[in-house]
Each structure stands twice: as structure tokens, then as C-alpha cells.
Write a structure and sequence with these properties.
single chain, 3-stranded antiparallel β-sheet, signal, 40% helix, 15 strands, 11 helices, Transporter substrate-binding domain-containing protein, alpha/beta, 3-stranded parallel β-sheet
């Protein structure tokens, strides 16, 4: 009889757990009417902080679209590539956006949305030096000065593959002027950023943007184990792509090669 009673209690607890799926960021965002978004504001064409304090870019527009689908307003949470994961794990935001690369290291402690596309690493150099820096072997030399923003996957690539080169860290806003001024030789970055910056900074050239040195995907960062929130974001992304909303936003910032 005691064993039967125990089984009944366990069944009751299990039924209650199934009936109450628990708190999700989806429910919280809808209830409070605010979506908190972490972004670095220094990675065009995905995220940029303007002089007037407003954010702009592909992922900024997408985050605004997500908030609109939830009848919510956005609270932007500034972060850096070095502090992105600590800020996110401290639950400072519901989602992080801004050209975030999918990585196994980040996947250990967070979820990713469905990928937004492939965007691998390539060199960005002065146009006069394109032929000099075609490969990892050509760049991984003691005399080559590599410059990267701190804390992101660009720095990880440089540390992993370019250990013989001189690696210097710099902010991701004026880093392109350092290249143009001849204070550095190569920046390893994603093909999308390289393509964008060569249009903004005449004299800089993306090296073989169609032949990336490393496979990479872009996605939005989400809290781990929150399946309801991830499912909503993934479905919203799917519909954004299927209806052409995402392509329309991308086309405003990044011309198709």
C-alpha cells in the first residue's frame, strides 16, 4: 500500500510539472512588454552605435522586428566581445545580436538561434598587399603585423593559426584606420565585414571573400535550455526569411557579391 501511495504521489508531481512548463523568457518578455538585447555596437554591417546614441545595422533591425512581433519595446544593453558571454550568462539580456559567430565554446553555456548564414574568416588588407597575404602560410610570419579586436572569434582565429605573426589587439571601430595608416598589415575578420569595410574605406581590400579560411555561421545568442524561447525565435526567423523581410534588411547594408 505504501509503495502504491508513493507512486500516486510521484504521478501527481509529474502531472503538475507537465501542466506547468515553467518560466520562459518568452512569457517574461510578453508580460513585461520589454525585450532586453545585448550588442557590442562596433561590428558593421550588423551592429553600430551612432554618435546620437542610437544603434543601427542588420541585426539591430532584426531585433526591432522581433520586439515588434512580441508587442514589446527594446532595452539595449551595451557589451563588448570580451564581456559578451559573462554579460549574457549574468542574465543581463534576453538575446544577444550583432554578427555573433556560432562556436562550440559559446554553445557550451548558451543556445543559438537557427543560423542566419555562412560567413567565414578572410584577410582584410591594404589593396596594394592583396597578393602578399593570400594564405595562412603567408600571414603566419614573424614580420607580419596582425591586428584584431579583443575577445571575439577573430582573435581566437589569430591566436590559433597565426602564432608566428605579431598580434596586436585594438578596438573594432578605428582598427580599419590602423590598417590604412600602415600601422598593421592584416586583419582577419568575417567576409561580410571585410566586404562592407572595403566599400567604406577605399584602399582596403577583402582577400578572396568567396574562399573563406575557416567555416563560420552567424546566429543570435539565446539562454541555454529555454526551449520555448528558442522555438519562438527560430519560427520568427524562419518566417522573416520566407517572407523576404530578412533579405530586405540585409540588402540595405550588404550588397550580394
Amino acid at each position: 500500500m505504501k509503495a502504491l501511495l508513493a507512486l500516486c504521489v510521484l504521478a501527481s508531481v509529474a502531472t503538475t510539472a507537465l501542466a506547468d512548463p515553467g518560466s520562459s523568457r518568452l512569457d517574461e518578455v510578453i508580460q513585461r512588454g520589454t525585450l532586453t538585447v545585448c550588442t557590442t555596437g562596433d561590428y558593421m554591417p550588423y551592429t553600430s552605435l551612432r554618435a546620437d546614441g542610437r544603434y543601427q545595422g542588420i541585426d539591430i533591425a532584426m531585433a526591432e522586428s522581433l520586439a515588434k512581433s512580441l508587442n514589446a519595446t527594446i532595452t539595449w544593453v551595451p557589451t563588448t566581445w570580451k564581456t559578451l558571454m559573462p554579460d549574457f550568462l549574468a542574465q543581463r539580456c534576453d538575446i544577444a545580436v550583432g554578427g555573433i559567430s556560432v562556436s562550440l565554446e559559446r554553445q557550451k553555456t548558451a543556445f543559438f538561434s537557427q543560423p542566419l548564414g555562412v560567413d567565414g574568416k578572410i584577410p582584410l588588407v591594404r589593396c596594394a598587399d592583396v597578393q602578399r597575404y593570400q594564405s595562412v602560410e603567408q600571414i603566419n610570419q614573424p614580420q607580419v603585423r596582425v591586428i584584431e579586436p579583443a575577445g571575439g572569434t577573430n582573435e581566437v582565429f589569430a591566436r590559433t593559426h597565426l602564432g608566428q605573426a605579431q598580434i596586436r589587439l585594438h578596438d573594432n571601430v578605428s582598427i580599419f584606420d590602423e590598417l590604412l595608416a600602415g600601422k598593421a598589415d592584416v586583419m582577419i575578420t568575417d567576409a561580410s565585414e571585410a566586404r562592407y569595410q572595403q566599400k567604406q574605406k577605399p584602399g582596403l581590400c577583402a582577400v578572396n571573400p568567396e574562399r573563406q579560411m575557416q567555416y563560420s555561421q552567424k546566429a543570435f545568442l539565446l539562454p541555454r535550455d529555454d526551449v520555448a524561447w528558442k522555438s519562438y525565435v527560430d519560427q520568427w526567423l524562419h518566417l522573416s526569411v520566407a517572407t523576404g523581410v530578412y533579405h530586405g534588411i540585409v540588402s540595405q547594408w550588404l550588397a550580394t557579391p
